[in-house]
Amino acid sequence: MQNAELVGLKAYMADNPGAVIEDVARERKVTPRAVLEALPGGMARIGAGKFAAAMQDIAEWGEVTLIVHTDDAIFEFTGAVPKGEVGRGYFNLMQPKGLHGHLRHERCAAIAFVERPFMGKVSAFIAFINCDGGIMFKVFVGRDETRALRGDQLARFHALADRIAPKAG
C-alpha cells in the first residue's frame, strides 16, 4: 500500500471507526487486516496467531456471537463456542450439535483484539486473521439484558489480549 493510500485509510477510519471492516477493505482494495491496523490508536491490538490457545479460552466465556462475513453472506451464531482440539490438520470443534466444524488453524497468522464504537454502542471482538490478511471469523463479547457488554467476558477479553497482543509501551 502506498503511503498516500495508508494516510487516506487512516483518516477514513478516524472519521468512521464503526465502519464495517470488510466493506471498507473491499471498497479501498486492501485487506481487512490493513483496515484493522488503520483504526485509531488504542482500538485494535494485533498479536501472533495463537489460535488454539485463544479458542480454548473463548470456549470458557459462555454465550458469545461468532460471525463469518464473506462477500456473499454474513453468518451469525450466538451461543457458547465449544472446546476443540487439533487433529488431522484442523482445529476441530467438538460437539455434535450447535456450532461445530473443522477450522484451518494453521492459516491463522494473527489475532486482533478490537474495541470500537459500532451502531451507537461500544463493541469488543476478536478477529482471527488469516495469512492472506483476511478475517477468518470474529468472536464478539456478549451483551447482558441491558445490551451492555458483559463485564465478565470483557475482563476475559482484556486478559487474553494482554497475553496474545500486549500493549506497546
TrEMBL record:
Return the Gene3D superfamilies for the record.
Answer: HemS/ChuS/ChuX like domains
Could you tell me which Pfam families the record lists for this protein?
A: ChuX_HutX
Gene it is expressed from: hutX
List the CDD domains hit by this protein, alphabetically. ChuX_HutX-like
Query: What protein name applies here?
Result: Heme utilization cystosolic carrier protein HutX
InterPro entries cross-referenced by the UniProt entry: Heme_Transport_Util_sf, HutX-like
